Amino acid sequence: MADIYLALIHAPVYNKNMKTVATSITNLDLHDIARCSTTYGLKRYFVVHPAEAQRQLAKRILGFWQEGYGAVYNPDRQEAFARVKIVANLNEVYAEIEAEQGAAPVKVATDARKYANTVTYAQLRKDIETEEVPILLMFGTGWGLLKEDVEQMDRILEPIYGPTDYNHLSVRSAVAIILDRLRGH
Fold first, then answer.
1. 185 Cβ partners below 8 Å, 6+ apart?
2. Is pLDDT above 90 for 17?
3. Which of 110, 118, 151, 159 is the most buried (most CB within 10 A)?
4. What are the Cα distances from residue 20, in Å, to 72, 147, 181?
5. E strands along 10-166, which residues?
6. What does the pLDDT look like over 92-107, one tens digit per residue?
7. Pairing status of strand 20-21 against strand 13-14
């Protein structure tokens, strides 16, 4: 079975006007995605942000739950945060996975749009269950990853569709749905 990693990317991403921006790290994304990552057995959850001040803020939040009062108050949160790593860029993510696994990860972008090399959840789930190469799931904050970055990935996971035309989930919701489709029983 392939090990799964997750990267939450804060820059470069789109804003609602399709301009390239950096978004802020949020407390809810740190907590909720760490808990999902632990529930579904992911190897690591990388939070990617180029700004030192944003990375320090995230580390302070993590520290409270890993070493401060929060570690005693809620040990389950401490366990979930043990999988989180704060990094400046995707090159750090790729290097760490390759050093740990001895192989470059298969890079899988998520997006609310469909692309030529889009794969289904069933296909990616099968690959996870049968392959040994690590899988890196990449999620963009804001209004998603840049189109040119998505197109450079090895695979693109199909969008999440509901029964309506509305298609703008929070990244926390998208992560939960996708991880359940890929690893849930």
1. none
2. yes
3. 110
4. 40, 11, 30
5. 13-14, 20-21, 44-48, 84-87, 106-110, 118-119, 135-140, 155-157
6. 999 999 999 999 999 9
7. antiparallel
